[in-house]
TrEMBL record:
Component of the exocyst complex involved in the docking of exocytic vesicles with fusion sites on the plasma membrane. This is Exocyst complex component. It comes from the Eukaryota. Residues 443-791 form the Exocyst complex subunit EXOC6/Sec15 C-terminal domain. One of its GO terms (cellular component) is plasma membrane. Residues 81-250 form the Exocyst complex component EXOC6/Sec15 N-terminal domain. The lineage of its organism: Eukaryota, Metazoa, Chordata, Craniata, Vertebrata. Residues 39-66 are annotated as: Disordered.
Length: 834
């Protein structure tokens, strides 16, 4: 049943739902007949309703208000009127519905007709779709068959292509297996490279390829292990043959050395350094020269084996190539070097009794030579396995160990013959390894150390000899009574003095008896040192330098130490020190004769420039400086002893009129000492004199400024001035010649200006000119003047109790106080400026 909506008003003004009856039966709702409404009536109704709603709104409002007023029956009346209004509206609605009812019925009827046609159309469409579906099923089946066939065709093509890619990989892998079975490891590694770089990338997505890839590292490891096993066998082989290899190499070096000696004799060349030490002669040239040099001696001698004849190096070459292909060359190098370092440590470990026989040393050297000959061969026939840096590092390590071992074991050698044989072995050992390019300078330095050990015993012996000479010396000039004694001294010591030669007998040499004895003993030491130096495989120039160095040790260490110990001995006085200075001067002059002596016994030219000179000049200068310093010290100590005897009465009112006794004794002592200094070099005597005067001046100044001295009278100052005058007279008398003008008197200038200031009482001039370069009292320090003035101020207060009653004394006291204030001001200004 069709549902329609029609507007209707209820009592509360809401819309009401109407059900349209099934045509043709149709009737008004609630039993009321529907009145058709025309357009005009409906419009009129709408307009009247609308107008009524607008027009009666104020009225309705008034009606609403009146409903709730208190008028009786107002509500009831309102409801009645409302019902009447509703009835009127319902009538209007019925009219409107009756007017539109027929059109609504017609529309429903047409809609029902359309529904019937739509159902027919739907049936036709469904039937058409069914027929289309039935017709397309066969096409779909055929299309799916075509697609499936094309997929199969594409898959077959892909399989053929992949098989074409896989078959070469499988063939190469089969080839790899055959190479591994045939132990062709290098070819197998090349095949692996081709598989990895060319073939595997094409088929890397297949499982069998992944299995092959995973298997390659295992194969490489197998190859590594096999090649490493061969390397271990090689290392064991060279360890066993090291002795023989080293013996062969040292024999070649010995033959080369002998050949060079023969060649030198043929050319009449003496003391020329062996060529083999500096240059490695090629093997072919060695054979030719050895054959020519030893033609008569070695006619039946067997050919010397080379290192290649004794050891098969193919395993190390093969292993190196394999690891290079594997890209793990560094691992192989590290392993090889590590193992060789272990073998080196074993070779370098000597037997505990090696020092007992020469054979022990020889066996030790041949093992080391064999080891490094192999390393040198590996260095030259391989690329990178052994580098020069590595061999140098290994050699330096070995060399340090060798030197330590030889140094330790050679210290036990007490037999001179064994020491010489050891030295010869070291020389041959060094020559052999230097021929292979290894630096051996440290070995020759070791020979110098062994030689130094020999020299050390000589130095200890000569130290005792020097001590005995110094103990027996009387430290006085050598007296000569006739010509024979003069010639005896001249034959022992190269002394030349025309003035002494002109003097008549008896006469004296300036040096003491110890000088010629020391000179003779130095020459004896040079002879003893030469016995070891001659066979050190060095040229005459180098031997000459070594002798000079040994002599330098004797002079700079042994003799110098003995001289310094002698100088510092308490019983050595100023006279002995002066003689020691004279002795060292003549020994210093004799050094050039010692150099000539060394040059003569080593047969070198006088024009040869020596790398080492005799340091006697510095040695004897140091000893002389030490003696001079000791003279200055002892002289000052002596002055202090005299000064301590001073006994001034610092409160005396008048001076004694003559200098103090202690000072006159001191001056007389200085005059006698400086007369002895006439034999010293002028500068030394002048320095000693100046040092003594300065020390005396300082001591006198300290005496005045002593903190324990509280009071000083003017009489004491005047007495002190008399002593200073004697010091100045002594300085002006030129106790030591060579001083210019009043240079020596300047040592007392500080005292002189200070005493003049107090004795003249010239404070106005001092204060006015203070700080000026031309000041009369330039050397007087304000602090010094203040200290001394305060001591005199306290004295004047105590000695002049009634000074305040005398005008002159009062004025003087005021002047002192004024000067003290000004001096303090100067001192404070100096401190602030500082």
């Amino acid at each position: 049943m069709a549902m329609v909506w029609a507007p209707s008003r209820s009592m509360n003004g809401s819309c009401r739902r109407l059900r349209a009856p099934t045509p043709p039966a149709w009737g008004p709702p609630s039993g009321k007949a529907l009145i058709p409404l025309g357009p005009r009536t409906a419009a009129a109704g709408r307009s009247s309703g609308a107008g009524r709603g607008v027009r009666h709104r104020p009225r309705a409002e008034r009606t609403d208000r009146s409903v709730y007023d208190d008028q009786p029956n107002a509500h009831k009346k309102f409801m009645e009127k409302l019902d009447a209004c509703i009835r009127n509206h319902d009538k209007e609605i019925e009219k409107m519905c009756n007017f539109h009812h027929q059109g609504f019925v017609d529309a429903i009827t047409e809609l029902l007709k359309v529904r019937t046609d739509a159902e027919k159309l739907k049936v036709q469409v469904t039937d058409t779709n069914r027929r289309f579906q039935d017709a397309g099923k066969e096409v779909i089946v055929q299309t799916e068959d075509i697609i499936r066939c094309r997929i199969q065709q594409r898959n077959i093509t892909t399989v053929v292509e992949k098989l074409q890619l896989c078959l070469p990989v499988l063939e190469m892998y089969s080839k790899l297996k055959e190479q591994m079975s045939a132990k062709r490891y290098y070819s197998a590694l090349k095949t692996m490279e081709q598989l990895e770089n060319v073939y595997f990338p094409r088929v890397s997505q297949y499982r069998f390829c992944q299995l092959m890839i995973e298997n390659l590292p295992k194969l490489r490891e197998d190859i590594k292990e096999i090649s490493m096993s061969d390397l271990k066998d090689f290392l064991e082989s060279i360890r066993k043959h090291s002795d023989k290899i080293g013996e062969t190499a040292m024999k070649q070096a010995q033959q080369q050395k002998t050949f060079n000696v023969v060649l030198q004799k043929q050319n009449n060349v003496k003391f020329v350094k062996n060529v083999y030490i500096n240059d490695r002669i090629p093997e072919e040239r060695n054979e030719v020269e050895l054959k020519r040099g030893f033609e008569e001696e070695d006619e039946n001698e067997e050919e010397v084996l080379t290192v290649q004849d004794l050891v098969d190096f193919s395993p190390v070459y093969r292993c190196l190539h394999i690891y290079s292909v594997l890209g793990d060359e560094e691992t192989f190098e590290n392993y090889y070097r590590k193992q060789r370092k272990k073998q080196a440590r074993l070779v370098l470990q000597p037997q505990s009794n090696m020092h007992e026989t020469v054979d022990g040393y020889r066996r030790y050297f041949t093992q080391i030579v064999g080891f490094f000959v192999v390393e040198d061969h590996i260095l030259h026939v391989t690329q990178g396995l052994v580098t020069r840096a590595y061999t140098d590092e290994l050699w330096n390590m070995a060399l340090s160990k060798i030197i330590a071992v030889l140094r330790a074991h050679s210290s036990y050698c007490t037999d001179p013959d064994l020491v010489l044989e050891l030295k010869n072995l070291i020389v041959i050992f060094a020559d052999t390894l230097q021929g292979y390019g290894f630096p051996v300078n440290r070995l020759f330095d070791l020979l110098f150390e062994i030689r130094d050990q020999y020299n050390e015993t000589l130095l200890k012996k000569w130290a005792g000899v020097f001590r005995d000479i110094f103990e027996e010396d009387n430290y006085s000039p050598i007296p000569i009574v006739n010509e024979e004694e003069y010639k005896v001294v001249i034959s022992k010591f190269p002394f030349q003095d025309p003035d002494l030669e002109k003097q008549s007998f008896p006469k004296k040499f300036p040096m003491s008896q110890s000088v010629p004895h020391i000179y003779i003993q130095v020459k004896e030491f040079i002879y003893a040192s030469l016995k070891f130096s001659e066979s050190l495989h060095r040229s005459s120039t180098e031997i000459d330098d070594m002798l000079r160095k040994s002599t330098n040790l004797l002079l700079t260490r042994t003799l110098s130490s003995c001289l310094l110990n002698l100088i510092r001995k308490p019983h050595i006085g100023l006279t002995e020190l002066v003689q020691i200075i004279i002795n060292t001067t003549h020994l210093e002059q004799a050094c050039k004769y010692l150099e000539d002596f060394i040059t003569n016994i080593t047969n070198i030219s006088q024009e040869t420039v020596h790398t080492a000179r005799l340091y006697g000049l510095s040695t004897f200068k140091d000893a002389r400086h030490a003696a001079e310093g000791e003279i200055y010290t002892k002289l000052n100590q002596k002055i202090d002893e005299f000064v301590q005897l001073a006994d001034y009465d610092w409160t005396m009112s008048e001076p004694d009129g003559r200098a103090s006794g202690y000072l006159m004794d001191l001056i007389n002592f200085l005059r006698s000492i400086f007369q002895v200094f006439t034999h010293l070099p002028g500068k030394v005597a002048q320095t000693a004199c100046m040092s003594a005067c300065q020390h005396l001046s300082t001591s006198l100044m300290q005496m005045l400024l002593d903190s324990e001295l509280k009071q000083i009278s003017m009489g004491a100052v005047q007495q002190f001035n008399l002593d200073v005058i004697q010091c100045e007279l002594f300085a002006s008398s030129e106790p030591v010649p060579g001083f210019q003008g009043d240079t020596l008197q300047l040592a007392f200038i500080d005292l002189r200006q200070l005493l003049d200031l107090f004795m003249v009482w010239d404070w106005s001039t001092y204060l006015a000119d203070y700080g000026q370069p031309a000041s009369k009292y330039l050397r007087v320090n304000p602090n010094t003047a203040l200290i001394l003035l305060e001591k005199m101020k306290d004295t004047s207060k105590k000695n002049n109790i009634f000074a305040q009653f005398r005008k002159n004394d009062r004025d003087k006291q005021k002047l002192i106080e004024t000067v003290v204030k000004q001096l303090r001001s100067l001192v404070n200004g100096m401190s602030q400026h500082t």
